[in-house]
Amino acid sequence: MAKGVSVSPGAAKVKGNFRRCGCGGNFSLCGVNVHVLPAGPIQTNAYLLTSRPAGGAVLIDAPEGVWAKVDPVLRAEGCRLTGLWLTHGHWDHTQGAAEVVRRTGAEVSAHRADRPLIETPEVMKSFLMPGLTVEAVRVDRWLDDGDTVDALGETVQVRHVPGHCPGSLMFYFPQAGAAFSGDALFRGGIGRTDLPGGDFDQLERSIRSRIYTLPDTTAVFPGHGEATTVGDEKKGNPYVCA
Ligand SMILES: [Zn+2]
Ligand SMILES: [Zn+2]
To answer: Separation of 52 CA from ligand 2 center, angstroms?
Structure first.
């Protein structure tokens, strides 16, 4: 759930190591293609990472209906989805997860602190928009700060960035200079901290110690809205500036 961020689907202006590949909302980084696929009732960014040489793919977050956007990309690129990485357990990031798992058998990874949200989503009932439902999904692999995950020819660093949600994770690709921040940090914003388990001081600490310590050129791909860089947010973020 985002904090009043402006959402422009698929758009991005990034100065980091990323290079736009010219097809609205797609990026290329060290041989991995990044497809920005906003979906669901509040336009949550799902990121589909594909590697044609490896024939593999990983999906970061699964908003409602995301499978309809993921499937054609997998077919076009001849890639098989093996992993679904959840940045946190809020419904707008998990609503499409069960369908993705049914279709692909992808292994689901998340932080243990969000287990109740992901595996018993009825606990979020009072925060759901009217008429929405969320299906439970089983997590196969619990990740924590300092873990690494080998995927698509990269060694990805896992960083725990709680404060918006207790189990918020960020996935950092050091070779490519890119980080997927979920709802911890947005372009010009931060995640809301008024939901259960939210804590502003903790979020500020997470951002300062786990995100702003990355190189300034690191591209940041958030859970809502446009991409940014660590350097731009350190300078200009009105909530947490360095
Ligand atoms: Zn969200
Ligand atoms: Zn959220």
So the answer is: 31
